[in-house]
Design brief:
This protein is mainly β. Helix content is 15%, strand content 43%.
């Protein structure tokens, strides 16, 4: 049986959303400033190699990556800025984690799975809402 792409995207979104809700959110004022600054100690602007028409005609874009040992945030700067996240998990066989990107200008969403190579670079694949296949490589700063 083939899982329809939309079903897979909804399932992926639910999985990422549910895993981020493991603990109740705290108001920002109750979190010490140093904890906010240190929540993503690995930060940097890197080049993401991605061929996705929603970002523009190029195959490489600047991306701000913020990460810790469990998860990270991404901002990809193409013709529109798309924001996303990734999460390391051992719960998905044959993969090291899940990712998602959302482009606010046109409301497009994409998600999928990734593996890490020996250098810690994310090698990802997935689909968007229009069944467009997406793959990318994203170096994660040390």
């Amino acid at each position: 049986m083939r899982i329809r792409p939309m079903t897979a995207m909804i399932s992926l979104g639910a999985c990422l959303s549910l895993s981020s809700c493991a603990s109740p959110p705290q108001p920002e004022t109750s979190i010490p400033q140093t904890e906010l600054e240190d929540s993503y100690p690995r930060k940097g602007v890197v080049k993401i190699s991605i061929g996705w028409p929603r970002l523009g005609p190029l195959t490489s874009y600047d991306a701000l990556v913020q990460a810790n040992e469990a998860e990270g945030k991404i901002e990809v700067y193409g013709e529109q800025t798309c924001r996303g996240r990734f999460e390391y998990t051992s719960e998905v066989p044959d993969f090291d984690g899940l990712w998602e990107l959302f482009c606010g200008d046109d409301g497009n969403y994409a998600g999928g799975f990734f593996q890490l190579n020996d250098q810690g670079t994310i090698i990802a694949s997935g689909i968007d809402l229009y069944d467009t296949q997406i793959s990318f490589t994203l170096p994660v700063p040390n």
